[in-house]
Amino acid sequence: EQSKPLASRTVLEKRIAQLTQTSEHTRPTNWGGYQLSISEIEFWQGRDDRAHDRIHYTQQQRIWHHQRLFP
To answer: Is position 10 within any domain?
Structure first.
């Protein structure tokens, strides 16, 4: 159901509870993954007038700080 519209957070939480109780969670033996450790990230939202929104987040001592950047 990924990416389908969701009526509310409650619907999601109920579905998770159902799957947790009824599903066996197995992974293929060749399963792998990545763990990311992020200390900073920037969100960029383009605008027609080119005065784009840029928000820069940095993590310091487990606390996230943000600031707006010039485009």
So the answer is: no
**H or E segment to which residue 47 belongs:** none
Question: Are 69 and 52 a contacting pair, CB within 8 Å?
Answer: no
Higher-confidence residue: 28 or 38?
38
**Residues that are catalytic:** 50
Query: 8-20, pLDDT tens digit by residue?
Result: 999 999 999 988 8
Total domains in the chain come to: 1
Cα radius of gyration rounded to whole Å, the chain: 19
Residue 51 lies in a domain: yes
Identity of the amino acid at 44: W
Is the pTM here over 0.90, yes or no?
no
Torsion of CA 28, 5, 13, 65, to 10 degrees: 90
